[in-house]
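Summary: Need help interpreting a holo structure output

Steps to reproduce:
1. Submit the protein chain below together with the SMILES for S-adenosylmethionine.
2. Request a joint structure prediction with the ligand placed.
3. Inspect the structure token block that comes back.

Expected: a single structure record containing both the chain and the bound molecule.
Actual: see attached output.

Input attached:
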Amino acid sequence: MTDPTAPPATHLFYSALAPWWPLVSAPAEYAEEAAFAAALLREAVPPTRTVLELGSGGGNNAFHLKRHFAMTLLDLSPEMLAVSEQLNPECEHVRGDMRSVRLGRQFDAVFVHDAIEYMTSEDDLRQAVETVYAHCRPGGVAVLVPDTIAENYEPAADHGGQDGADGRGVRFLSWSTPVEAGATTSTTEYAFLLRDPDGTVRVAHDTHVLGLFPRATWLRVLTESGFAARSVAEVTAENRLPREFFVGTRPA
Ligand SMILES: C[S@@+](CC[C@H](N)C(=O)[O-])C[C@H]1O[C@@H](n2cnc3c(N)ncnc32)[C@H](O)[C@@H]1O
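--- attached output ---
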């Protein structure tokens, strides 16, 4: 299924570089966080069976969540949907823009992981939350998980990547730069070294501008869209800052 009005995906990471995604970000890295999300997604009354994920990307969260729920996966990028279809062939995949898509049906729960950070203005965030509400049935639950919020943003550098069984290999560096006080966006620069099976190595650079909103803005936008909203601090054993999960319950 495709929304013909959805704009093309513009980031190299999610278009030309999408086939490299499994070597940049592996499903196993998502297991703990997906389990935390599943516990919140289960809160719908009656209990959750169907989940819509907006901005599902390469489907790494869905790889874990599909054991608990029937997943419908939506993304702007046809290339990322193709990667997810390989990993999650049993899930429904749909192309669309989370700010505007209307599938004409509702789900027990709606999940938006790090893709929500591509909402770079409060207006974009509001449109995405309205999409979440439109697809969440009465009594259903919404879970939104930005990597960072204004209160816990820290500039950082990270690196990773791995070798594939097919002879390809990736190593990357990500660099989130400092922000001014009160900034509503942050910037992450990515540098990739991409090795083809014949040993040829290419370099690619991609800049990602991401929304950065205070907790109060998240809760207000959810509340104004009709949800009873709260935030939940993640419990994680991973060596990183715990994330803040925003949970909205749609009144029955
Ligand atoms: C970091 S990836 C998501 C990875 C995902 N959490 C996973 O489990 O594999 C971010 C995704 O957000 C998608 N995206 C960005 N803007 C979007 C929009 N307006 N609507 C739908 N998807 C969007 C990108 O195409 C990309 O696939």
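--- end attachment ---

Reviewer comment: Helices lie at 21-24, 31-41, 60-65, 78-87, 122-134, 215-224. The domain at 156-210 is CATH 2.20.25.110 (N-terminal domain of TfIIb).
Status: needs-info
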